[in-house]
Amino acid sequence: MTEIERLEATVKRLRRTAPTVEGVAQQKAARMTLERLERQLEELRKEQ
Predict the structure, then answer these.
(1) What's 18's DSSP letter?
(2) Where are the domains of the chain?
(3) Backbone angles phi, psi at 2, to 5 degrees
(4) CA pair distance 8, 27, nearest whole angstrom
(5) How far is 7 from 22, CA to CA, in rounded Å?
């Protein structure tokens, strides 16, 4: 599994779970993590 595939799987999982996470702070943290991973994924795609 490449780094891109691993990140895509993580992003997909976070997108699925982020809305169901309880608590505003946890939701915010999940969204921030998701956004950071999506940016990282975009950068990796550009490099290829």
Answers:
(1) G
(2) 3-47
(3) -75, 170
(4) 19
(5) 23
